[in-house]
Amino acid sequence: MALLEVSGLTVSFDTEDGVVQAVDDVSYTVDAGCALGIVGESGSGKSVSSLSVMGLTRFAGNARISGEVRFDGHDLLAAGDEELRRLRGNEIAMIFQDPLSSLHPFFRVGDQLVEAVRAHRDVSRARALDRAVEMLGLVGIPEPRRCASCYPHEFSGGMRQRVMIAMGLINEPKLLIADEPTTALDVTVQAQILELLARLQRELDTAIVLITHDLGVVAEVTDDVAVMYAGRIVEQAPTERLFARPQHPYTWGLLQSIPRVDHRRDEPLVPIPGRPPSLILRPSGCAFHPRCPYVQEHHKRIVPPLEPLAGDPAHSVACLLAEEQRRELWSRLRAGATPDEARAAVGVPGQGAPVLREGLEAG
Amino acid sequence: MAGFITRRVLWMVVLLAVISVINFTIFSVLPSADPVLLRAGRSASPELVQTITRQLGLDKSKPEQYLTYMKGVVLHFDFGYSYQNQVGVRQEILDRLPATATLALGAMVVWLLVGIPIGIVSAIRRGRWQDKLAMGLALLAISAPVYWLGLVSLYLFSKEIGVIPIFQGAGSYPPDGSIVSEPIAVVGSLLLPWLVLAASFAAIYARFMRGNLSEVLDEDYIRTARAKGLSERRVVLRHGVRSAITPIVTILGLDLGILLGGAILTETVFNIPGIGRLAFDAIQKSDLPIVQGTVLIGAFFIIALNLVVDIVYAYLDPRVRY
Amino acid sequence: MTDGLAGPVGDAVVGAAGIAVGAGAPALVEVRDLEKRFPLRRGPLQRETGAVRAVDGISFDVREGETLGLVGESGCGKSTTARLVTRLLEPTAGTIRYRGEDITHRSRRELMALRRDMQMIFQDPYSSLNPRQTAGSIIGEPFVIHGIERDETRRRARVRGLMEQVGLNPEHYNRLPHEFSGGQRQRIGVARAIALKPRLVIADEPVSALDVSIQAQIINLLSDLQRELGLTILFIAHDLSVVRHMCDRVAVMYLGKIVEVASAEQLFAHPRHPYTGALLSAVPVPDPQLAKLRRRQVLGGDVPSPTAPPAACRFHPRCPKAQPICSREEPALEVKEGGNIAACHFPLTIEEVAGRLPVRPG
Prior knowledge:
The complex is a heterotrimer of chains A (363), B (322) and C (362).
Chain A: E1 2-15, E2 18-31, E3 35-39, H1 46-53, E4 63-71, E5 74-75, H2 81-87, E6 92-95, H3 99-102, H4 109-118, H5 125-138, H6 144-147, H7 157-169, E7 175-179, H8 187-204, E8 207-212, H9 215-221, E9 224-229, E10 232-238, H10 239-244, H11 249-257, E11 307-308, E12 316-317, H12 323-334, H13 339-346, H14 354-357
Parallel strand pairs in A: 3-8, 3-9, 6-7, 7-8
Antiparallel strand pairs in A: 1-2, 1-4, 4-5, 9-10, 10-12, 11-12
Chain B: H1 2-29, H2 35-40, H3 46-55, H4 62-76, H5 89-124, H6 129-143, H7 146-157, H8 183-217, H9 220-227, H10 232-244, H11 246-260, H12 264-269, H13 275-284, H14 288-316
Chain C: H1 6-10, E1 27-42, E2 47-63, E3 67-71, H2 78-85, E4 93-98, E5 101-102, H3 108-117, E6 118-121, H4 135-145, H5 152-165, H6 182-194, E7 200-204, H7 212-229, E8 232-237, H8 240-246, E9 249-254, E10 257-263, H9 264-269, H10 274-282, H11 288-293, E11 333-335, E12 341-343, H12 350-353
Helix pairs in contact in C: 4-5, 4-6, 5-6, 6-7
């Protein structure tokens, strides 16, 4: 059963430079106990969409939000501030990228956890502190009783993120939204945190929305993935299928442009030309078209809808190329063809790779 | 922490010594009316002049004079005698200090009680009418000079000449009283000076608080506090204000230090017998021992409060604890 | 050669690109027993009570034409090492030789000529460019500093050429840094670094501040330039995937020490030091099936403080293979089976490595 159901979520911000269309018609569901990864670069709308689910964009003052977000029987966008407050930190929790700036520098770690408990439970300070210490122990902080009276700056980066996780899970929420939880951490610490999240997800049966730019992290942790570009979801699938049969040229671009430890050095990186678009002046039609090697004239006019594949209803893509063409293109790309070679071989007409057209405008 | 305080106290001593040297040099080198003639009177005999010169120690070399002076200050809190009326400078300062302290501390309470809440409201309602109104008024208050504000307020509100006579006017401060001996009279006479002195400070603090808090409210840990499901009231008042108010301690210490050295304009306009008035009168009469004494006292307050600020800061911000 | 480091490592090691590295290539930079301590002061008199041992006696060579990767986690001393080699920091002990000459204690003026030969690319293209200078004058600055191309028109032409070479539009000569994207700013940094045709480029995390889709552009740019200009690169990074792609040889640092040096092929296929093994096993791979197959080796605890590093082998408190001897005797950096140089009493065996690495078996 769907725990979180987001449909048609659209978020824009009025700024001095114009209207920033941060999230545009985004829909996804998260089932109880499952992990959804949302992948994208900076400015793809991956964080804003989740902050909106939490009602945290309301505080920005200049945000316009529409669509529907249903969580466990609640309509989150229609809910009043007080109803949302009761859910935040209690039913839905969130952890952030930089654990140092996300913890209050002047308050003891224990007090910050106690506060999280007492915001939702009518318990004594002492009992809340016991719970805080228990939680700190659960996330692997040594000597939790002593550490509860430490300040955030006395911890290492990894330990701080553990504190954040303890704080997020202290009321046993049904959903945890983790926004780039390991990006600021070293790789061995990242491994510790990812393992911890996986263990807690199993033990507490928490659903997770993991927001990240790192396809590796997604592959390790999630059950489903949504790839976002310029405020929209361009591809969505169960994780294994997305990596096995990616459909969108942007997903291909990501997969082929990231250096990988499991690849030989002579496998070339194929960069995505250009750079992520401005959200104020988004490209017309398919927002990826200025960077897409397979762009056709009508792609610049028509906004592609996110539609399920014919043979696989769980796998959706927003691309105007024919499914057959995409299959052929990807099989050639995977075999080592350059985008231009693949385009020529499959017979997709076009002006050639934007690398040549826009070589001087490289990111 | 102990090491930190020791280091700072040592520094404070060095700094005060340097200030006292500069202070002494300026006042003994600058041309002014001859203190001996001031004392001896209009038609003094040369013998009398010589005696007085010896009495005042002015026949000795300058460094010797300085050392004698500093010995008095450090060992006996003795700043010498006023050239004018033979009263000990120490006595003068101690007599005047309560009025200045009452004025400064009272005004501080007023400007904190007014400025901080206005700053908080402005920060929360950033860009709305409450913010615009408050910041407009603040600009006015900052632009108005204290002596002008003082005179206008006396004209409007003082019992003697006021259009709406609701406050005690200038010169109502009990001549030999203090907040301890005559609390009602002192508070009554200081109400208007407190408001006048606090006006520009309240405005500055409101703007400072608004700026700090707006910045703090954009911090990641405020987002965390909201994500925990705390009420907005608690997010702003506990998490936000706690951070935003910390830098205010710094300027508060400095401002208070400066005022304790004498609020010259306010004390003059309202005729309050404080350190500022004392210094003002002494400068007019070239009463060097008193001027020196008030300058040293002023410097002492500024430096001492700076030390207090650093200690309080370390208490408020666990990251700077040593 | 002063110790066993330089000799055996690269003998007949062939880089993936098919270019022989190591074998016979002379060392451009030789670092021996390099140390940097940052003193800690305490008390009323600010006495020195200890030191952060940021770099604690490391030795390595950077060979002509190669890309040497220096990897490790934050606080391991890799960036300090970069700043020592470029002499932006004064070493506490040890020697640095550049083309055979001892430059360890060269004065600022004597370093001037050296600075032409040795350039740096920084991590953050936002903070390392002067916001009020145009792109053209930033790139042309090295010419001005070193008094080359004094003629304005010719200098402009050179700068335009450089802009084209790094993939910037020469028409943007007069733009300010904030008018460029992150990737373009890094290109400006690269253009400035190669302006004087240096032999050695020290790149300190050059792609870690960039968006994923931009990283590959800069990596490819650096690889292309290296080939065209015959650059030697000291590449400092925490991202092992990037290092895997860029480097011929890799040195792994932990707490101020080098724990392993090997050719990239060898290091990624068969790490010998348990720390290298743990590091590799921690890298997430964008391949869900592989992620399920491999057994992860997750290290316990945190990196100890560099003010009081553990005795003997610094990795022993976290090492899954630690024995009593590891806390008593510091292991020497020596050649292990397979050609890796590692500082370990009990190097990883083939069996221990299998199934943990982020590569598909077979």
